[in-house]
Amino acid sequence: MKKSIRLYHMIEYCNENRTFKLNDLMSEFNISRSTALRDIKEIEALGVPLYSSTGKNGGYTTIGNRNQTKIAITDEELKALVFTLSSISNVSKLPFQTEYQEILKKLYNNSSKKELINQYNGIFQYFNEGTYRLKSYKLFNEIIRLIIGNKFFKICYSQNNLKEQYKGIGVLYKNQQWYFVVVNIASKLVKLLNISKIEGLYEMGETSECYEITMQNFQQFMVKNDTAIDIQIRSNAIGLNILKGYLWSDYMIENVDEETYLFNSKVNEKDIDFIAKLIVTCGANVKVESPISLENAVKTELTKIISMY
Fold first, then answer.
1. Helix orientation angle between 292-306 and 272-280, rounded to the nearest 10 degrees
2. Residue 268 — left, alpha, or beta (φ > 0 → left; ψ -120 to 50 → alpha)?
3. Is residue 120 predicted with pLDDT exceeding 80?
4. DSSP-assigned states of every residue in the chain
């Protein structure tokens, strides 16, 4: 759970429970003692009035108005916050949509600057293509739970039960799609799974495996280096922008001249057919230079398309 979201839910927890122990926070939010202590200091700095007591029966007590948290914020910060919450609440592809709207409503109801907030009403309009939505916010929450809990699991993906066991690393949003970043525990290879194609997640237990793979370095684990294939694609500027939009483990671009580029990357051998499908979508803006296996896979894909006409 992102820190900002966790702090928001922790404030709600404090207001709802009034009295709690440090262990209660650690259990509720699945965090360590040191993280819980740091979070308590941060929510106190945000204006949550907490009284702490020591001893066997010691803990924390929320004092004052339990329904209102005072936060020192400037007019410009308030406008930026309202705009951000309004924007994301109107995007159809976000999880926790209800929470965003509730935060915005509470911000408005507890603010003495309603007139300032009202300036945004009717100014912005959002057009959503509506072609893709998270099938279930429950699924998204389950993904978050598995990641935070260091659980390993099996997956039913696009109507196929994957045989391997996986661990969740994080969630990625790119090109109007949400991806679940997972690692195969046995091979330590990372996969990016389109969340809309996940049919089921089946928890197997807790694991300490693959702790070294994070959202900061997962791209290094998308390709198995000892069996990886080097690919090179000649492209114009249009094709290059399309290629850069895909989820490569890594890539390098050589500038041949003002209108021509060489796109270099590494892919797993078994992914050649999939890469060929991506290249076909670039049309005449790209041409495979190497390897021959990728060139042949593109030709095969084009032949399938031509045969339909």
1. 60
2. beta
3. no
4. --HHHHHHHHHHHHHHHSEE-HHHHHHHHT--HHHHHHHHHHHHHTT--EEEE-STT-EEEE-S-TT-------HHHHHHHHHHHHHHHT-TT-SSHHHHHHHHHHHHHT-S-HHHHHTTTTT-------S---S-HHHHHHHHHHHHTTEEEEEEETTEE--S-EEEEEEEEETTEEEEEEEETTT--EEEEEGGGEEEEEEEEE--TTTT--TTTGGGGSS-GGGEEEEEEEE-HHHHHHHHTS--S-EEEEE-SSS-EEEEEEEEGGGHHHHHHHHHTTGGGEEEEE-HHHHHHHHHHHHHHHTT-
Amino acid at 5: I
What is the predicted pLDDT for the residue at 146? Answer: 93
Say which residue the tokens 């927890």 belong to.
Answer: 13
- pLDDT, tens only, 151-197: 999 999 988 898 899 999 998 887 677 889 999 999 999 988 988 88
Q: What is the mean pLDDT of the chain?
A: 81
Structure tokens belonging to residue 56: 């066997």
Which residues are CB-contacts of 29 (< 8 A; sequence separation ≥ 6)? Answer: 1, 6, 9, 10, 13, 36, 39
In single-letter form, the type of residue at position 135 comes to K
Is residue 154 within 8 Å of residue 167, measured between CB atoms? no
253-265 per-position pLDDT tens digit: 999 988 899 999 9
- Supply 241's token pair: 């922008």
Task: Evaluate if residue 89 carries a pLDDT over 80.
Answer: no
Residue 171 identity (one-letter amino acid): V
